[in-house]
Specification:
With 529 residues, the protein is α/β, with parallel strands linked by helices. The chain folds into three domains: 111 residues, no CATH class; 272 residues, Rossmann fold (3-Layer(aba) Sandwich), CATH 3.40.50.300; 97 residues, no CATH class. 44% of the residues lie in helices and 12% in strands. The chain contains 24 helices and 13 strands. The chain has an eleven-stranded mixed sheet, sandwiched between helices. A two-stranded antiparallel sheet has the order 1-2. The chain binds adenosine-5'-diphosphate and magnesium ion (MG). The site of adenosine-5'-diphosphate has 17 residues, from helix 7. Magnesium ion binds next to helix 7.
Length: 529
Amino acid sequence: MDQQEGTAAITGSGGDLDITARDLSEWHQALGASDREVEIQATFIVAVAGATADEATERAQFTKKFFSDNLEFQFDIPIGGQEKLWWAMWPGHPSERIVKEFAELTTGTQFASLAPLTSTDLGDGSGLLFADNLTTGVPLPCLLDLWGQITGDVSGSIGIAGEPGGGKSVAMKIILGAVHDRGGRFIVIDRTDAKEYGIFAESIDPSQATIVDLVDPKWSLDPLRIFGAKAGASQMLTLCSALLGVKARSAAGVMLADVLNERKAENAGLTNAHALLARLTELGQKDETARELAGLMNLYADTEYGAVLFDNDLPPLNLASRGIVFLTHGVALPTKEEIDNAAMFDQLGLDKLFGHAMYALLTRIAREICFRDPNELAVFAADELAHVTASPQGLAEINRFLRDGRKHGAPVLVASQDARDFGDEVTRSLIKNRILTRQTDPLAAESNLEWFQKGFSKIPANVQTVTEGLSPLGADNKVPVERRGEALFRDARGRMGKIRTRVSRRPDRAAATLSTPKTVKPSAEQVTS
Ligand SMILES: Nc1ncnc2c1ncn2[C@@H]1O[C@H](COP(=O)(O)OP(=O)(O)O)[C@@H](O)[C@H]1O
Ligand SMILES: [Mg+2]
């Protein structure tokens, strides 16, 4: 009579016995569906964890109830049998009697249908470890194989978009550090006042790092000295055209191009900017255009900020260096309006024109170095990219990196508050590894999401994830330590998930990685967190 308990047993309908009979008949049908069908006895064991025994028990009760309410599956919590069941979950452990006791009878087909059809795989199968994949409750390592992507015909470039404080720079430094550790090279343009990438590069290996502070240089960026008269001539031409505000087809432009013709520059022994200035002065004795150019150039040679180009006492940038950082803090730059408006541009002060031209030179030098050896991974990184792409030359160089970098083993790593700074729609679509950090402004969040994955900005839940769900600020206006570095990641294959960037456990590397504009020297709390 036990079996009929709680049912309208007398009428014989809806009782447990009926259900059992139905199950049995279904079971026979399933087993007989094919000659090859087999019987399977499977025991489902679920481990539930908690910080305390009470918490674990509570969660176990919740799980049990959830399965019975929603999935009509009864879990037992056998007192005294739990230790044996725990061990039974480990591969290779012999199954004990209790395991067989809880076996569920099923068929091969039905058992196979239990295989999960979703995947939370994210990132590459090998490569540098830069984050944990948080998509499920179990954090899994998330790897980035830049070299593998490049040799597999994907660009290998990485874009990071999000508001200040979201974790962009930390992510960049994690990646750059790992690139260095694996024998790669990196070049960075750093505009922060705290010189955060300078500190970072020095900490990696002072003997391998070269830091060029544009306003207080220890190295010369004169392309004629770095690359020699022949190879440096075209770069010097790019620089001088921008610096002297010379249009390519004007008389001055033509003259400059002639003087800096590769062969002529070499023959004339133009091995540094001073030699070029002397040559123009010499030509200027007979030629008005040359005299004007020499006059303009002289203006820069005399300024303090001109030292990075004209001071021959400085050693030329060391190309063998494995980590080069250009510090551009304090370098004046024209506003976007001044660049776009021809009349305003013509009125630019020398300092802004110098800054503008230097960005063109820096990106050009970066390309020369990164594109040199196609068999070596050389990453060009630019944080706060808007400064670079504001100028047409800077944008063109980023474009070129994104389009051709793969062939030369040279991916770019860029970060900005707004993904639209990564160039026009076509250009930014070339970045395959996309990372979104927190962006609390809904409009900017939408624009970043649209770049992340087309159509995503239209889904309110996604916007909410980016505005509220990534490294949210606590009541004290600080991000709780355990939630720093959260981001959405779309990997080179287009798979998406949530990650948390993973700072190196090496204390020195962690300290260098966490050096931020506000805290040049990170606090002990940051280093150990
Ligand atoms: N993975 C991480 N682990 C620990 N702290 C992190 C992590 N990512 C970022 N942070 C912290 O979050 C703050 C903001 O990071 P930062 O990279 O400077 O942001 P952004 O460059 O976007 O302005 C810093 O205090 C940094 O130390
Ligand atoms: Mg930053």
